[in-house]
Amino acid sequence: MARLGLDDYGDEQPMHPTVSPAAGVESAAHLAGVPDEFQRLWTPHRLVYIQHGQQPDEHECPFCHAPAMPDDDALIVARGKHAFVLLNLFPYNSGHLLVCPYRHISTYDLATPDEVAEIGELTQTAMKVVRTVSRNDGFNIGMNQGVVAGAGIAGHLHQHIVPRWAQDANFLPIIAKTKALPQLLGDVREALADAWPAPSA
């Protein structure tokens, strides 16, 4: 089933024009500048994100569309009155969550007091649930405000909650530019949703 293209940290790089995408993986030895050890994996299907600054139009915002979808399709873990929690489709680690207000606002200073309060409450609950389910050692928590700050979807405010383990950064991201994720997104969503406390009456 198709999933939403939610967030990828805004780290796309332009494609090099000297080699056809059909070439697949190329050697870095002939590139201009100082050669490095990295190979380049061509992904032409993602060119639209580069050409348009990775920013969808407001009417195509995935964070606006997600609440209208079933939880398992949108990877939603929990819903509040003013904000909701869902999995990042391109996670840094398993259990990488996003807390979003329902309103389409771009920066934290535009949030109402009620939205700020619930984003904070959902963040605290998410930390407790992830810690219970995943036994992680720590968290990275933060918001990227604006394209220049690396927001993958700058038009809709979202807070990252990234669980961290003592040895979650191994040789793969450094040598192979690859992140190993041991659980499928659907399984992670189900585990976190099942552990999420029921709303108080």
TrEMBL record:
The active site is at 158 (tele-amp-histidine intermediate). Residues 1-20 are annotated as: Disordered. Keywords: Nucleotide-binding. PROSITE patterns: HIT_2 (PS51084). CDD domains: FHIT. Residues 62-171 form the HIT domain. Pfam families: HIT. A motif (Histidine triad motif) lies at residues 156-160. GO terms for molecular function: catalytic activity; nucleotide binding. The keyword ATP-binding does not apply. Substrate binds at residues 88, 160. This is HIT domain-containing protein. It comes from Mycetocola zhadangensis.
